[in-house]
Design goal:
By secondary structure, the chain is of the alpha+beta class. It has two domains: about 80 residues, no CATH class; about 270 residues, PPM-type phosphatase domain (Phosphatase 2c, domain 1, 4-Layer Sandwich), CATH 3.60.40.10. Helix content is about 30%, strand content about 20%. The protein contains eight helices and 17 strands. The chain has a six-stranded antiparallel beta sheet. The radius of gyration is 23 Å and the shape is globular. The chain starts with a strand and ends in an 11-residue tail after the last strand. It comes from Agreia bicolorata. It holds the Pfam family DZR. This is PPM-type phosphatase domain-containing protein.
């Protein structure tokens, strides 16, 4: 049967996990029983119990276990029902995983991620993070549509490449072209997801950061200020993407990182995915990381508290020392750390693990 959203009353498909209109989670329903009040007759109590058993089950509050009322708030603690978008994790393989979290200050989560990976460590993976622009309502839909469209297109490239039998000498050009196509697919998916909102003066939009791991080769693409890092176990860590932002332009003109990224306009982006974007083409960079380490794709909700690659590497090393090398556990700890720093933005951290030294087969194009 169709599922009625307890928060906004929207009728959703029977298999919907969260409301298409407001994002409220629709799963984990619990039945609510009513104890007889003082002085209530046994007959009335039985009648109330029968009525209760035929009424619509209610969801359990994730904070206290109480029941979510029809207005979308818990009857016991009063907190609003948590949306599925508020916090979730993905782990397509044991060596790849990520966590996406609403943070503390924002009312909704406009970050999104989408992952794909082969079971064999280091063989093939796709990591995509998109951060909805908070000043444009509906950007949560834009980011999720963009992330999923890009991941689907990049993952499909793996199947095509295997079938076509391309060699390593063409890998850089092949994946670079496909990364550019993924940006186009993401943009088209945003248009489809937001519908008539695309015609607004300030339409929904998002950033884009992606990494394709194909054996020793890593190809990254970016639009906006979500980032991809190489976090080395030892040696030099690097930021693999370049931000499209006011702060990046100021650093290019000689301003220090600390000054540029602490300025009020630091997070003003100059390029993004969306109907009003001046340029949606991703910057694409192929590279061959050597040694053991991590590919980290994240939104500014994480790197805003730890921007420099070496500083972020120190944080990751400390987390791994505490929780081990499971990517989801590492990502979850990074998200928790960002929330402890203030959680002023949505936070997404996605990681893929490299465990072996891989010789560089060719210089990046």
């Amino acid at each position: 049967m169709p599922v009625l959203c307890p928060a906004c009353g929207t009728v959703n498909d029977p298999d919907a996990k969260y409301c298409e209109e407001c994002g409220t989670q629709l799963g984990d329903l619990v039945e609510v029983s009513t104890a007889p009040e003082a002085g209530e007759t046994e007959a009335v109590a039985e009648q109330n119990e029968a009525t209760s058993s035929t009424s619509t089950p209610r969801r359990a509050c994730v904070y206290c276990g109480g029941s979510i009322a029809d207005d979308g708030y818990c009857e016991l603690c009063g907190k609003p029902a948590q949306s599925e978008r508020d916090h979730w994790q993905e782990a397509p393989a044991a060596w790849v995983g990520g966590v996406c979290d609403r943070g503390i200050r924002h009312e909704i989560n406009e970050d999104a991620m989408a992952l794909a990976a082969d079971p064999q460590p280091g063989e093939f993976a796709v990591l995509v993070v998109c951060d909805g622009v908070s000043s444009t309502p509906g950007s949560d839909k834009a980011s999720l549509a963009a992330a999923r469209a890009a991941t689907a297109h990049l993952a499909a490239g793996r199947e095509t490449d295997v079938a076509d039998g391309h060699g390593d000498e063409l890998a850089q050009a092949r994946w670079s072209d496909r990364m550019l196509e993924a940006g186009e697919r993401s943009s088209a998916a945003i248009y489809e997801a937001i519908g008539e909102l695309a015609a607004r003066t300030n339409p929904p939009s998002c950033t884009f950061a992606a990494a394709v791991i194909d054996g020793p080769l890593v190809v990254v693409g970016g639009v906006g200020d979500s980032r991809v890092y190489w976090i080395a176990d030892s040696g030099k860590s690097r930021q693999l993407t370049t931000d499209d932002s006011w702060s990046q332009e100021m650093m290019a003109h000689g301003m220090s990182r600390q000054q540029a990224e602490s300025a009020p306009q630091a997070h003003s982006i100059t390029r993004w995915l969306g109907a009003d974007s001046p340029d949606e083409v991703p910057h694409v960079v192929p590279t061959y990381p050597t040694g053991a380490g991590w590919i980290l794709v994240c939104s500014d909700g994480l790197w805003n508290y730890c921007s420099d690659a070496d500083d972020l590497a120190e944080l990751v090393h400390r987390v791994v020392g505490l929780v081990g090398s499971n990517p989801v556990q590492v990502a979850s700890s990074l998200v928790d750390w960002a929330n402890e720093q203030g959680g002023q933005d949505n936070i997404t951290a996605v990681l893929a693990r490299f465990d072996s030294v891989v010789p560089t087969p060719a210089q990046p194009a």
